[in-house]
Amino acid sequence: xxxxxxxxxxxxxxxxxxxxxxxxxxxxxxxxxxxxxxxxxxxxxxxxxxxxxxxxxxxxxxxxxxxxxxxxxxxxxxxxxxxxxxxxxxxxxxxxxxxxxxxxxxxxxxxxxxxxxxxxxxxxxxxxxxxxxxxxxxxxxxxx
Length: 144
Fold this sequence. Notes:
globular
């Protein structure tokens, strides 16, 4: 098991073009409530996994499927207490993205078949890109 990184926390800058500042703050506030509640985080992760599995054949999810699996694995290991190598701001960003991902009413509502998953996948892809170095560290930790 690895200890927390000594690097300064990298602040996550969300995709303001995709969602407004007030929306971003709403997702972050919700995400902060998950930090000390592993069962709640695991429940969120299960819902996100189910949604991702159901949308796996869409082009937008398929394009980032391997990275989504790695991201979900990171969250699971973090929630279980097995992995501590991710900064608090990064895990809040990831959890905020998962909350957004499972939310049926977001920028493009999920009931719009074919389009509803586009914004969700875009948010996950942007989070994956933002925390790329943390994901690489996690992948290295995972392979040890």
